[in-house]
Design brief:
339 residues; alpha+beta; seven-stranded mixed sheet; three-stranded antiparallel sheet; 14 strands
Length: 339
């Protein structure tokens, strides 16, 4: 089967050996659930961001012990807490977990989704003695999500586990919704997996042909995606343009940065052949800023022009805003982000 063909799915049936392998893999992904402690003192974040302290009379731990808990809490226990409280895990963490890749907290974050308000979600963490701190290094709140006119918010937080700072991107809903990650805007097939109380599976809201597969076809596709992902190979999922220009611009610009990140981490993206990652050993000049490049850079396959990552990202995002579709160097259409 050609990996570049993302509109068809395998016609073959799963062999008995493959079914046993998939079942064994699914069982191994189910974690033991540790006890979740409840502190006596919590902080309730209200609508106007004022902090109000109240005492909850129930068996648990005090605020000082909550700090001690965070110092010894593991990432696995943090994930388990989210799952037990109906907070869905999605994105790169789930992908890397399935592939047994090492989670590097210095460059990666954990994406979680809560189908309740931000105030109630933060309260859940407080009840367990966990503090989500606002990450001021990132843009906080008021990011345009606009998914089918539903109200979604994106918040950037971090939690300190031991000596490690774990970054968390928290997506919450202003009102109950039936749209779940990846919110009908899946970018790469390897990012289709979600982790909830039913285990790890391909999400049902990818916005792609994956949503139309039968249960048997979906299991076959899961195996294929996982096998390829372990080799850092994935298929690109073309963006379906919306009539809302803000919605379209937001997600296209997001894809630019995601594509550059995936390529720089050694991934092969089938369906995107106009750009390659390169590590230059010789001093070369960026076509955009005319400054020297040594090390990480990107090259367009149409004319072999080389760019800094940040320069190409700015150029591509500007193309999206101005609806320009030509490469800055050779003016060919093939070199632009046809997302």
């Amino acid at each position: 089967m050609s990996l570049t063909n993302t509109t068809n799915f395998p016609s073959k049936k799963l062999s008995k050996q493959d079914r046993q392998r998939l079942n064994k893999m699914s069982k191994s992904l189910l974690m033991k659930q540790p006890k979740v402690v409840v502190p006596q003192q919590i902080k309730v974040i209200t609508q106007d961001n004022m902090v109000q302290t109240s005492i909850i009379k129930r068996i648990g731990i005090n605020e000082e012990d909550s700090i001690l808990l965070e110092r010894h809490l593991t990432i696995d226990e943090l994930i388990t807490f989210c799952i037990k409280n109906n907070i869905m895990i999605f994105g790169s963490y789930v992908r890397d977990y399935i592939c047994s890749f090492t989670f590097d907290h210095t460059i990666s974050d954990i994406d979680i989704f809560s189908n309740i308000s931000i105030e109630k979600t933060l309260l859940l963490f407080k009840l367990a003695g966990l503090s989500l701190n606002i990450d001021n290094s990132k843009v906080v709140g008021d990011e345009y999500f606009g998914i089918d006119a539903k109200g979604f918010n994106v918040g950037h937080y971090y939690i300190c586990l031991g000596s490690n700072k774990i970054c968390i991107d928290l997506v919450t809903s202003n009102k109950e919704t039936y749209i779940y990650p990846p919110f009908n805007v899946l970018d790469f097939e390897c990012n289709a997996f979600v982790w909830d109380t039913n285990g790890i599976k391909i999400g049902s809201h990818t916005g792609s042909y994956l949503d139309t597969l039968s249960s048997v076809e979906l299991k076959e596709k899961e195996l294929e995606i996982i096998d390829n992902a372990k080799k850092k190979i994935t298929n690109y999922v073309k963006f379906i343009h919306s009539g809302d220009p803000l919605y379209t611009t937001y997600w296209l610009k997001s894809r630019v940065h995601r594509i550059l990140k995936m390529l720089s981490r050694g991934w092969t993206i089938n369906g995107l052949t106009f750009l390659t990652y390169c590590n230059e050993n010789e001093n070369v000049i960026c076509y955009i800023c005319n400054q020297s490049i040594i090390g990480n850079s990107f090259k367009t396959t149409c004319c072999h022009a080389i760019y800094h990552s940040d320069c190409y990202a700015r150029f591509s995002c500007q193309n999206i805003v101005t609806h320009t579709s030509t490469n800055i160097s050779c003016k060919k259409l093939c070199a632009s982000f046809q997302l």
